[in-house]
Amino acid sequence: MSLATLLTRQAGVISREQALACGMSRDAVDHRLRTRRWRPLHPRVYLVDGHRYDDEARVRAAVLWAGAGAVLCGTAAAWWHGMVDEAPATVGVTVPRRRCPRPGVDVRRRKLAPVDVLSRRGLLVTAPPLAILEAAVELGVSGGAELLDRALQQWVALPEVHRAYRRGLGTQGSTTAGRALAAAAHRWAAREVAAKSYRPDRLP
Questions:
Q1: CA-based end-to-end distance of the chain
Q2: Cα 18 from Cα 24, distance rounded (Å)
Q3: Does this model's pTM top 0.85?
Q4: Long-range CB pairs of 109-115, under 8 A, 24+ apart, other chains included
Q5: How much of the chain is helix, strand and coil, in % rounded to 5?
Q6: Of the candidates 8, 25, 119, which has an alpha carbon nearest to the alpha carbon of residue 16?
Q7: Which sign, positive or negative, has the C-alpha torsion 141, 144, 148, 154?
Q8: Beta bridge partners of 13
Q9: In 51-177, beta strands by DSSP E
Q10: What is the DSSP code (8-state) at residue 112?
Q11: Taking a C-beta distance cutoff of 8 angstroms, is the pair 119, 63 a contact?
């Protein structure tokens, strides 16, 4: 892949390793940094001059910095899927190995099941059921409940979310996720009962 094509796909964000793989020399990369044509976002991850530092660039930079196998997760993943309107201030990434934390990046160490990971617009990202469950935990009681309810009506099925929860039992946040999911299931069941009991022909 050419450097220009890669930069277009990645909103102007590139890692040092990617630049070298595209045929650039180390001296050429360093020259662009010295002349401020490339701006460091994280160690060995840069934004190329002429591209905006927006939420997409910020998210891509976090995942690139986290390295091979890193998966966008939580509210950031829900935003990437289009299920929440605003990207979070801190980008969540799940990695299969330990990485030191970085400002603006929440690093989680967990081995994800293949069914919980997919590729979307050039990034590995948690699948919608897990993304929405993790986002609900991050957003807290009120915000998380609202997001779960909306997601169950528009994007994901309750059994899918429950299976994602079961695969993560014992991981950080799983207890809170279980409570949030149980409350959402209760609300969902109550709405189903109300919908079945609604009979327009019996209204006065």
A1: 68
A2: 9
A3: yes
A4: 110/168, 110/171, 110/172, 112/71, 113/167, 115/167
A5: 55, 15, 30
A6: 25
A7: positive
A8: 47
A9: 71-73, 91-95, 105-109, 117-120, 123-126
A10: P
A11: no
Supply 36's token pair.
């401020």
d(CA 29, CA 26): 5
Q: Is 41 exposed, middle or buried (0-12, 13-18, 19+ CB in 10 A)?
A: buried
Residue-wise pLDDT tens for the chain (204 aa)? 899 999 999 999 999 999 999 999 999 999 999 999 999 999 999 999 999 999 999 999 999 999 999 999 999 999 999 999 999 999 999 998 877 878 999 999 999 999 999 999 999 999 999 999 999 999 998 899 999 999 999 999 999 999 999 999 998 889 999 999 999 988 888 877 766 654 545 544
Q: Contacts from 145-148 at CB under 8 Å and sequence distance 24+?
A: 145/180, 145/183, 145/184, 145/187, 147/78, 147/83, 147/84, 148/180, 148/181, 148/184
Q: What are phi and psi of 60, to 5 degrees?
A: -60, -40
How is residue 171 annotated by DSSP? S
Place of tokens 């009979």: 199
Using an 8 Å Cβ cutoff, are 25 and 19 in contact? no
- Distances 101 to 62, 87, 91 between C-alpha atoms, Å: 11, 19, 11
The DSSP code for 102 is: B
Rounded CA separation 12/46 (Å) = 8
